[in-house]
From TrEMBL:
InterPro entries for the chain: ABATE, ABATE_dom_sf, Znf_CGNR
The Zinc finger CGNR domain, residue ranges: 129-171
Organism in which the protein naturally occurs: Amycolatopsis jiangsuensis
Record's protein name: Putative RNA-binding Zn ribbon-like protein
Pfam families in UniProt: zf-CGNR (PF11706)
Amino acid sequence: MHFNPYGGAGAQVAAAVATLAHRGGATAADFLAAGLAHGMALTSIDDEEAARILDWGRKLHEVFAAPEDARVDLVNELLAVAACRPYIARHDGKPPHLHYASEGAGVVIRVHAYTAGGLAHLVCEEPGRLGVCSREGCGVAFVDTSRNGRRRFCSTRCGTRVNVADHRARQFTA
């Protein structure tokens, strides 16, 4: 499945930040790595910024965990906080593309705008493509990029664990 740049990368950063916040104990380096892994142009995140991003990540996780019909209102709340103002940017030899925060904005504002914008695009285009891993105790947020859009687990590993446990439970009761 092809997502636009914000629906794709912005939503992927949202999933990564939501997961870090859900698991707890994330550091500034963890948030920096998550942003860089999905193409954000970040140079550093300090501890105070990381704490603010952690709070934001908890709100992002609510979107991933919410029923599909509740996501629009939750994302609208994120957009209101992010106070996004879209504009078309051209830099670093890239073709024109959307930005939702000025290039001079601080890292927290940019993370807010990037993730809220990405989730907004995704909720409008494919609201069922957001999820939280169905394995009890996991809680990893993900964007479902599978062909059929029916992903239930964050990874093959979690899916296999659940399937093996279900198989063993059936064998035990048989």
